[in-house]
Amino acid sequence: MVALAAADGEAAPARFVAFLSMTMDEAARFVDSVAEQLPDEVSRPVAPGAELRIAYYGGVARLAYRETLVTATAAADDLGALASLKHLVAYNIRAFLGDAADITWQGDGCETGELPQFREMRVVSAVDLTPRMRRVRLTGSDLGRFAAGGLHVRLLFPPQGRRPVWPCADRSGIPAWPEGEDRLTARTYTIRSIDLGAATVDIDVVLHEGSSPGSDWARTAEPGSIVGMMGPGGGELAPAERYLLAGDETALPAIARMLESLPVDAAGTAMIEVQDAAEIQALAHPAGFEIVWLDRGGRAAGTTDLLQAAVTSLAWPGEPGSFVYVAGELAAFKAIRDHCRKVWRLKRSAHLVGAYWRRGRRDDDPAASGDAG
Question: FAD-binding FR-type domain spans which residues (predicted)?
Answer without folding.
Answer: 116-239
